[in-house]
Amino acid sequence: MVLSAQEPSPAPGRHDAIVIGGGLVGAAIACGLAEQGLDTLLLDEGDVAHRASRGNFGLVWVQSKGLGAPHYQRWSRQSAAAWPALAAALAARTGLDTALEQPGGLHICLSEEEFSVRAARMERMRAEAGNFGFEYRMLTRAEVAERLPGIGPAVVGASWTPYDGHAGALTLLRALHAAFRDLGGTYRPNAAVAGLDAAPHDFRVTAGGATVRAPRLVLAAGLGNAALAPMVGLAAPLRPERGQILVTERAQPVLSMPTVNVRQTAEGSLLIGESKEDAGFDSTTQIPSVMSDMARRAVLAMPWIAELNIVRAWSALRVMSVDGLPIYDQSERFPGAFTANCHSGVTLAAAHARMLAPMIAAGALAPELRPFSAERFGHVRTAA
Amino acid sequence: MYAQRPEARPATVEVLVDGQVVRVPEGASAAAAVLLAGLPALRSTPVGGAPRLPYCMMGVCFDCLAEIDGVPNRQACMVTVAPGMRIAPQRGARVAGPRA
Amino acid sequence: MSGHDLAIVGAGPAGIAAALEGAALGLSVLVLDEQDAPGGQVFRAVERAAGDPALAGDYATEGMALVRAFRAARGVEYRPGTTLWHIDTDTLRLSLLREGKAEEAGASRLLLATGAQERPVPIPGWTLPGVMGAGAAQILLKTAGAVPAGPVVIAGQGPLCWLIAVQMLRAGAGPVTLLETTRGSAATAALQAGGLWAGRRLLLKGLALVREARARGLRVVRKVRGLQALGEGRVEHVRWEGNTIPCGTLLLHEGVIPSTHVTRALGLEHRWDAAQLCWRPTLDGWGATSHDGIAVAGDGGGIGGWEAAVATGRLAALDAACRLGRIDTAERDRRAVPHRAALRRALALRPFLDRLYAPAPEVLAPADDSTLVCRCEEITAGQVRAAARLGATGPNQAKAYLRTGMGPCQGRMCGTTVAALIAAERGITVEQAGVLRPRAPFKPLTVGALAGLAKDDAA
Fold this sequence. Notes:
The structure holds 3 protein chains of 3 kinds.
Chain A: E1 17-20, H1 24-35, E2 40-43, H2 51-54, E3 59-60, H3 70-94, E4 105-109, H4 112-129, E5 137-140, H5 141-147, E6 157-161, E7 165-166, H6 169-182, E8 186-188, E9 193-199, E10 202-207, E11 210-214, E12 216-219, H7 225-228, E13 238-250, E14 262-264, E15 269-273, H8 287-301, E16 309-321, E17 327-330, E18 337-341, H9 349-362
Chain B: E1 2-3, E2 12-17, E3 20-25, H1 30-37, E4 43-44, E5 51-52, E6 65-68, E7 71-75, E8 86-88, E9 90-91
Chain C: E1 3-9, H1 13-24, E2 29-32, H2 46-49, H3 59-72, E3 76-79, E4 82-88, E5 93-98, E6 101-112, E7 116-118, E8 131-133, H4 134-144, E9 147-148, E10 152-157, H5 159-170, E11 176-180, H6 186-193, H7 200-215, E12 219-221, E13 228-230, E14 237-240, E15 243-246, E16 249-254, E17 256-258, H8 261-265, E18 270-273, E19 278-281, E20 294-296, H9 306-323, H10 329-347, H11 350-356, H12 361-364, E21 372-374, E22 379-380, H13 381-390, H14 395-402, H15 415-426, H16 430-433, E23 445-446, H17 447-458
Parallel strand pairs in C: 1-2, 1-6, 2-3, 6-20, 8-16, 10-11, 10-16, 11-12
Antiparallel strand pairs in C: 4-5, 5-6, 7-17, 13-14, 14-15, 18-19, 21-22
Helix pairs in contact in C: 1-3, 1-9, 4-5, 5-7, 6-11, 9-10, 13-15
């Protein structure tokens, strides 16, 4: 009965690529590598890990991403555009429906001031997008009321883009794991990294009581990357940011499109989250007060939400870089080593599986990812 | 499918279970009222539409979720009956949204 | 916000005893309880039902005495109908829900006396209407005086099966059949556990119950395996290896397990109890947990029955008074002597009972793939096994894959079963598979109630 996920392999412990971290980022990259024909090993922690992925709100979200960083806006948009193909491929391979919907999305503004700040921000986004384009509209209160049921008197308006959508974050995680396995990948849970030896195109990882080798190594261990990256001559300056999600009981379909902090899942639950832009939430304070602020904002936007029971709440640690943008890097000292760090594991899943993974398989990141290097933070720490 | 014992619990309260008037002992829960009324099911599940009746009677299993006095998804086993209480079955997931 | 010396969650035997002891030592005590009257599940509704001849025994005498003393106690603020949904472990601020509104309370020390729940018995068909916990049927008898009409089948094992059978027969239900799942080898193992002499009082009570059951016509079938509930839309038959009988009401019982939902959510240290096959918080002899402001008393700390709960409640209150500087340790230890003796007596028979009534592996991890495990999200044993093969090493990852534990019960019904299934599939122990880590809110509250809390704070 003992289950070993290992496939028979001519040289035990030797793979084409090792991915450290079985959350959404690592699983998407591992899936993409396996799709490229690489014999890939995915190392994961045990039952109590996966915190960031399990706490993902499930937005495939574009409209807020990358003010002052058009490369991030473009990367997010490309991923959102590649999502339908990813969802279809996962469904075909695993039979799992990731419940992707991309009907556009709303960012609701609860005061005139919020509205004008938002309008200015969206206009800057359009200006920065240049030839790539950025379609958006600032909707009046009446236009929001046409799209969402029973909006509250506090709603002034909203920003809208056609690019936004949502998907089931946990189904996505399961589908990526199932697809990876189906593609012949080897998944090893309970395998936290105990040792890592690096030489160019030759990485040796000790994890879960075994030592494995590969010429390619991808660090996708979330916050764990901060400690791992220096071992391969890279830096991943990350900090945890607590995020909370409230989950209501299932309800009949009522929301036709997601907003940045309320969405209805395919199962019927309403998720209430906090958007990063809703600054002022001190997420380090007591949880009930944070939860309460989130609930109040949701009720201001849609008062009928007040009647729904919260059956779960989830707090997870987001993986945040200093500027909030992803970090993608390749090691110059140890060619073959890569890092991937971000807090948008759902939005960027398609980019990770279908764009980033082929670059890693080919051995080098494309120039368009250069601005995502940790070098942007100035001095980077490297191994002593 | 349950029998009352008036000799042991003489004091009763009148409640409405799925629109039917039922007399149940004082201090009984709304879930008990449903069982005493002989309702075949208190709800159908939001996932598979399967019929359910109360299972644990102590607030653990949430199989007794019912609409009580107009409020959906209340744990009927945790609510003590009051005169005139309206206890209604639920079908699938509750309705949400602005009241018409 | 009023600050009490000691907040007690649960007004069953442990909570009541702790409140009485604490108040007697001069502590200001706050008792919160979800029910609308004191007594816990064991003495549920005793103030209304003590006169019911079907419930004669400890319930009517000892239970009534305990509740009466609680009602008469000075220095105890009792808040019935109050649900706890969050505890701040830094400040011991309690987030509560009463009459649909969120409120808060504070205390210097916290005692969790949240009791036990029936062990889930996931057999095929256990979600059919007409199937319920045996303890659930007993609650119906206590709170409403009602018994099933028509033939009743009690399936499972443990002292409660016999007690309930007797109470139902006294109340005029019947015919009643007990399908006892105790295995043939269990008696030998149980006798080796000893404790029969020290626990003779409880043992004699049990034997008297068995005699009464027989005299009242209880039909008993022994060594039952492979239980199934069958029926269209409700239970119509119960089947086991070798037989099928018609059945209008099927009452399942395989013992009780500690309610550890809150203690686990708080991240307190727990250990797997291999004898009782359940998780329990790690406690010292006073009920102190790994958090120095929080203690546990009663069945929530490990199954011992109501007399043990009273003793552990008293001991926890003594320790609270000591830590709050009201008595010194010598005084605490001196006062503890009779309660320790009572605890020893109450627990003497426990090893025997634990071995005799140890649930079969198929109760912990159902063999049939189509058996529903998660009642809320309707996930089967086979789906959990598949998730284990996909890579879920424990119930938390299984929850992410399958939604087991994401419904309104938050895994109270499926958590242990999911872990046992994963353990069997991966060839590890249930302990290694681990335990669900729940999060606040411990029980549902409305978005509006939660939002209202913020407004009150700001005011």
